[in-house]
Amino acid sequence: MNFKALLKPIRGFRLLAVLLTYALGAGLAQYLESVKSWPVLLGGAAFLVLAVLTFDYLRALREINDPRFRPAEQTPNEVRQMRLGLSAISATLLTVAATIVIGWMVRGQLWQGVSVLLLAFAAIGVAYALSSPFEKLAPIQPLLETVLVVVIPPALGYFLQLHTMHRFLTMVVLGTVPLYLAYGLLTQLIRFGQDQQKGITTTVTAIGWETAMVLHNALILLGYVLFALASLLGFPWILMWPVFLTLPLGLAEFWLMERVRRGYKPLWGVMKFALGSTILIPVYLLAFAFWIR
Question: What is the pLDDT of residues 27-44, one digit of tens each?
Answer without folding.
Answer: 999 999 888 888 999 999
